[in-house]
Amino acid sequence: MSLKVLLILTCMWLKTQNVVSQISDLRYTENTNDNLGNAIQFLRDFDREAAEMCNRVASSEWRYAINATDFNKRRMREQQNLVSKFECLSWRRAASFDSSTIVDSSIRRQLGRIVQPGRCGLGEDKYAEITHVISLMKDNYNNAKVCPFPGGKSTVPGSESYRSSSYVATYTTYCDLKLEPELVRIMESSRAEPELRYYWLAWREKTGPSVKNTFMRYLDLANQAAERHGFNDAGDQMRSLYDDSEFFFSVNDLWMKIQPLYKQLVTFVRKGLVRHYGEQVVRKDGPLPAHILGNMWAQNWHSILSLIQPGPSEMPDITGEMVRQGYTPFKMFQTAEEFFTSIGLPPMAPEFWRNSVFQKSNEMYGQCTASAWDFCNKIDFRIKQCTQVSLEDFVNAHHEMTHVQYYMQYASQPFLYREGPNPAFHEALANAISLCVGGPTHLQKLGLLNTPVSVTNGNTMINIEYLLSIALDKLPFMAYSLALEKWRWYVFEKGPVGMNARWWELRLRYQGIIPPTGRGFEHFDAGAKYHVISDQDYIKYFVATVLQFQIYSELCLASHHVGPLHTCDFYRSREAGRILSDVMQQGAALSSSQLLKLLTRGKTSRLSAEPLIDFFRPLEAWLELQNKDEPIIGWSSRMEDFALFQPLVDRNGRNSAAKHMFSLLALLMVCFYSVLSF
Ligand code: X8Z
Ligand code: ZN
């Protein structure tokens, strides 16, 4: 065997052992500085400078968020550029330390947190290029506008079953419908299939194709950066943030456990869709058409709850009750604060009440996504939320305040540990609190729900309706986030050839949905989602969903809850509060597995789907009963489904490429004989 072959084989073996990525760490750095004193001094300086920088950029972003002027935008961009420069400078310095000789694990961990993520290894020109490429794609997305549905109101007046959205008429007759608020609301509220199909297509027309080539350049640059940072590709780099060498397989395993419940939900939803739209639109045993699920991306099906419920809702009107009881946005946040103090967490600081913005102002147009802010100086934390008096925003107020509690709890950690141990933790904690405060038991305790909810019997219709609404929120979203991220990992690894077909193949496999019409290689449907073109991690939402039920379940256990999990309310439980604050205080000082161990008091250090399944158990039993006469649980995919996006398969399931090859061959033979006979 030649030396070269031996070298290749050794390399392949090392790759399977995941050793190449560690070796390639050495490729881009000097790794010569082994002076512990220097490392400590560097981290001390970094801590101070990074916090100051973070404070300046957060302030400029806040100013722009509440007053979106060009001047504020320029100031914000300047600060963001300074941060990028600082990050790359710090990256170079951190990478110059030889971590293998540093015995102090915290110093090593902090250096790793500077070196591992990011794209500074690209060098200045390519770093500037990838930043530019991403901002081009974001601009295209943010500026996308579509024309109103030309069919006008495709409704039978007065008929609920043909209800069209009234937004078009309200807003405009010009081509200036934006994603938010217009298109989002149309997709939520319209029940007219032609209208939904039109907007679904129009949004994809405006967002995908024009950035397809730019996206391919982004793939290339992101992969180059990942390789410089020692990873196989950019997907590998994204997964590394989850502190699990088997992460790819772990998410699969988790989904396998949840899938049976999801299939029951799909089956029940399909029944409602067939009832409303008929079998011309929805096949009785087939996947669901993506455009009629109440959301532009079919990622959340909450808005079609009323459509799929066979009878009238039994859920009392909580929003109406809040209005009757005189709730204001301010009172909603005061109530949220009282929730946290009741479990022993601190109240919000005076700065929070002075600086936060709880209601939309005129200058804030287009900036209404709720958010929680850390100004990185240990005292200034804020919320920006365009709060309406509604149950949804009441829950959101608690969600955002949980983020602030987290900021406050880890404020005394070094700067590099002032975040969650992985990208999912913040959302998971906030949503665990949301599950608690939006549940029937808590609403009853607050006097907002006056119908009795049995805590021992989770099967009353109010309970089922509540669980169904949460399921429509969480389960399709998990399937969607898995499909999205698997697609991105795939294109990072294998390249962009056939990427649109791959997108739909994964959406069919995980979500059981199909596009409303044929999609080809000229389309770029993943590009219709902001997080794809703006380079943002999405698997965090999948992980956060699993994790939030785990956290909720542990806090319930600590509060000595008895009864079905979804009826648990750990309001006023000091024990639950103690666990919450123990976990929060660590920030990222511990790994996510160490924190899971802390949370579960030693029971496990791994993600588990059990609490989620436990939470939905009464719903699953109810769905099984509802679906007992359905032809199939889940969906059966036919060739005609694949033919919608696989260029190689025609509607009869034949391989159309082969068919074309035969036609071509026949043509050639005819030509050949014609020439011969000539
Ligand atoms: O991007 C967001 C939030 C910020 S974390 C506005 N979300 C994802 C999305 O819009 O797709 C929240 C739900 C998932
Ligand atoms: Zn959040």
Note the overall shape.
Answer: globular
How does the helix and strand content classify structurally? mainly alpha
- Total number of helices: 29
Main beta sheet: strand number and arrangement? 2 strands, parallel
The low-pLDDT segments are: 1-30, 154-162, 674-678
Alpha carbon gyration radius = 27 Å
Mean pLDDT: 89
- Small-molecule binders: L-captopril, zinc ion
Q: How far from one another are the termini? A: 57 Å
Q: How many DSSP E strands?
A: 4
Helix content: 55-70%
Strand content: under 5%
Report strand order across the widest sheet.
1-4
Please provide a written account of the structure:
The chain has 678 residues and is mostly helical. Among the domains are: 1-26 and 648-678, no CATH class; 36-115; 140-211, no CATH class; 318-454 and 549-607, no CATH class. 58% of the residues lie in helices and 2% in strands. It has 29 helices and 4 strands. It has helices spanning 3-16, 20-25, 36-66, 70-95, 105-115, 124-143, 167-171, 179-189, 193-207, 212-228, 234-239, 247-277, 305-308, 318-324, 329-342, 350-355, 391-409, 425-437, 440-445, 461-494, 499-511, 530-533, 539-558, 574-586, 592-599, 610-615, 617-626, 639-642, 656-677, and strands at 288-289, 371-374, 381-384, 513-514. The strands form 2 sheets. It has a two-stranded parallel sheet with strand order 1-4. Strands 2-3 form a two-stranded antiparallel ribbon. Strand 2 and strand 3 (381-384) form a beta hairpin. Residues 1-30, 154-162 and 674-678 have low confidence and may be disordered. The protein binds L-captopril and zinc ion (ZN).
